[in-house]
Design a protein that fits this description.
alpha+beta; YacF-like; 2 domains; four-stranded antiparallel beta sheet
Length: about 260
Amino acid sequence: MQEKITYEQPLNERIRTLLRLEFLFQQARHTLGGDTIWDSRATLSSILDILNVCGRTDLKTEVLKELERHAVGLGRLERVPGVDSAALGHILAELDISIDRMHAVNGQPGQALRQIEFLNSVKQRSTIPGGLCDFDLPAYHYWLQQPPAQRINDLQEWLGTLDSLRVAIQLILRLLRECASPGPEIAMGGFFQKSLEADNPCCQMVRVFIPASSPYYAEISGGKHRFTVRFMEPVVGGRAVQSVEDVEFELTCCIM
């Protein structure tokens, strides 16, 4: 089977935020197990970025709304003949558990971490280019010199306070990505546009799939009424140009 690259574009602010948080959690978990100082720096940087994103909105309410919307929508399928009731029941149980865990979060996600003076001092200096040098933050330098097992344990503990949020985001995005199968499309002269008013009133995310061997990448833009896909050819040392060829690709409009 030919390897493909997936390009995703959120069509509303809520999904955009969830995708950013998913990326940051993946980044943090990837570097978490590393035992070098630079691994610990990278993991802590990801944690602080997560806190920054969490602080920009009433994230707990937004996530709960999305979980409950999925639960209501999927709950209607219980009365539809031919639906795999065992699989549906498993998903609904996952949603119920995640909703309960989010309700149990005290305040906004990450609130407990914002009370830790050490993390606040690192966060403050991280906005300055090179602001996390050893001479700027002796306490951070001291922490980085501790045995790897201790640093990893601290990072695991801090990330663990955000675990309910991470699991909820994983579940929401998994259900969104699995809600439909990709279908074939053609971008004439490297350009494709689709209106959403009639066909896909609740489309939350667009996914484009092209072979990894393709000489172009997908540039997607859009909102709640329409979206466009341009297939761009990178130019070494110059500006990318739109392909003049007709491009075959696969498309999923994620509607939940």
